[in-house]
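pasting for the record
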Amino acid sequence: MSLPKYPDSPTPPPAHIHTVADPAPVPRPTPQISVTSGAVVAVLVGGVVLTALLAAVAVTAISVAVCAVVIRSMLRDQRRR
């Protein structure tokens, strides 16, 4: 049986080869955002105002549509006479 032949080297190769790693990226500081009660109240009031305006527009549109139907009906009755 033959044995493997190793190269003649006076010093063994290093077990761990040291490589220079890239430096870790420095995290940028994130700005602190604090939610105050005033901001929450402002958002809620804004939502209520926008909802009220939307409801007012819807009621106005419905009332204009009803008025148009009534006036159209009245004009149609006058033309028949």
